[in-house]
Amino acid sequence: MAGRVEGKVAFITGAARGQGRSHAIRLAQEGADIIAVDICDEVPGLPYPPATEEDLAETVKEVEALDRRIVASRTDVRDLAALQAAVDDGVAQLGRLDIVSANAGIGTQPHPTHELTEELWRDMIDINLTGVWHTTKVAIPRLVEQGEGGSIVITSSAAGLQAYENIAHYVSAKHGVVGLMRTLALELAPHSIRVNSIHPTQVDTPMIQNEGTYRLFRPDLENPTRDDFVPASQAMNALPIPWVEPVDISNALLFLASDEARYITGVALPVDAGAVVK
Amino acid sequence: MGRVDGKVAFITGAARGQGRSHAVRLAQEGADVIAIDLCGPVPGIGYPPATPEDLEQTVKDVEALDRRIVARQADVRDRDALKAAIDEGVAELGRLDVVVANAGICILAPWDEVTPEVFRDTLDINLTGVWNTVQLAAPHLVTAGGGSIVLTSSAAGLKGLPFLTPYVAAKHGVVGLMRAFAHELAEHHIRVNSVHPTGVDTPMGAGDGMAQIGAWLEQHPRLAGMFTNSLPIEITQPVDISNAVLFLASDEARYVTALTMTVDAGNTQY
């Protein structure tokens, strides 16, 4: 049986681990080839270890184990020229482009809004908002030129639909990509290119499973653990679960990327266990 | 393995159109089906009503896929008949996992030509009928330990499309129902979402009523853009809605709840 995205090529940012790697594998399972980029480097102020080149190599290995092709490069979404080169190189090797997953992003330590440093604010907006714009900017000309439509999926967050205290830079960037999604949905519709966003609640990845997040959610404890984080994280969600798995986001991405969703555009799709309506 | 293998889905308005398409698509992916339809006339609809023969065709289509189906002629306004159909279907098929509240009517008229009867019938079927469906079916999902409920709303459930006042009111109401049920049922791992199609290529979407829209729009040109799809297509196919229902019904969407899922070619964004 043909896969649900058989023969398509997907460009995925932040693909070294976490949701990005999961997206690469899930799309490859359903027949897609992959263009993968990741910074694989430090960003100042992150409360968790950065992705590494070894992580990206692992993504390559897992996609190749599925007998799909993958072109991976160490690329920062803030570097427009490098990103353009990465997608151009990927398209040259894989022959086409159909799917764009603007997934790369950073989390943060909590700070009251007026105490955020300029650097923290700038890095967040540069990566989580401008980086998404860069990702679409370098990919759209190829999709248009190809003339067969396409699907762009932007990773926002529950924090792209509602506010959370003390992460104003994250909330602002994630709201901003919703505006970008809606504008692109209108601009690209004449080319049958669809643009949607996904809004996860907490996902079980290194970005949330770290001491900084544990402390954010459990300020009442001196040394909070993953177990201590469970009830606090679950309190965010309507469904009785603490967090979702990367594959849950990948399944939503797969649906939006596939031709099953050929008339779905402009949707902000929460995979949030009901966090936003709560 | 199918994407909803071993599940049982209850679908209202299943004789033809989107409802039949949902039954067939879910059966293709492994589900058994409990199907109901009024199979009879509602005063004022500008298209021929579904018939018992239509429902029989749905049964044949599902059985041709080697899935089981329990079909009953029942009106979503008749709670006793609805409950009997659900309970008998669950008794025969053994469980219930998915509910698709799809049954609905659409009667077009400019605001000053809507009669009290049309307003009442539309609300009774398109809103109260959905409430009946969910309230009577959900206990079986609680018993099963979880499930997925999909309510068929419309682009007109998110924007005030003209010449459809009762329909717009009912379909907006469905969104309220969806959100309220999503909260109350979350503790049982039951997810509740709505789908919002733009025009769909079905008997409802192709009736005389629709043909009148053009004439009304000429009289009210400022409203003309409201029916425009952003993607360069005029109409969607039933399977496009079914694919969204399938995603929401499957475990792939196990943490997706309270979503208004548009399948509208960008209509509500335009």
As a percent range, the share of strand residues of chain A is 5-15%
- Radius of gyration of chain B using CA atoms only: 18 Å
According to DSSP, the number of beta strands of chain B is 7
| Largest pleated sheet of chain B | 7 strands, parallel
Helix content of chain B: 40-55%
Greatest interface: A-B, 35 and 35 residues
Task: Report what the structure shows.
The complex is a heterodimer of chains A (278) and B (270). Chain A has 278 residues and is of the alpha/beta class. Chain A contains eight helices and seven strands, in the order E-H-E-H-E-H-E-H-E-H-E-H-H-H-E. In chain A, 54% of the residues are buried. The model of chain A has no long low-confidence stretch (mean pLDDT 96). Chain B has helices at residues 17-28, 52-63, 79-93, 116-144, 165-186, 208-219, 238-249, and strands at residues 8-12, 32-37, 69-73, 98-101, 147-152, 190-197, 260-263. Helix content of chain B is 42%, strand content 14%. Chain B starts with 7 loop residues before the first strand and ends in a 7-residue tail after the last strand. Chain B is built from seven helices and seven strands; from the N terminus they run E-H-E-H-E-H-E-H-E-H-E-H-H-E. In chain B, helix 4 links the parallel strand 4 (98-101) and strand 5 (147-152). A seven-stranded parallel beta sheet of chain B has the order 3-2-1-4-5-6-7, with helices on both faces. Chain B has one domain: NAD(P)-binding Rossmann-like Domain (Rossmann fold, 3-Layer(aba) Sandwich), CATH 3.40.50.720. The longest helix of chain B has 29 residues, at 116-144. With 270 residues, chain B is α/β, with parallel strands linked by helices. Classes of the chains: A alpha/beta (278), B alpha/beta (270). The A-B interface holds A 182, 185-186, 189-190, 192, 194, 201, 238-241, 244, 248, 251-252, 254-255, 260-267, 269-274, 276-278 and B 179, 182-183, 186-187, 189, 191, 198, 230-233, 236, 240, 243-244, 246-247, 252-259, 261-266, 268-270.
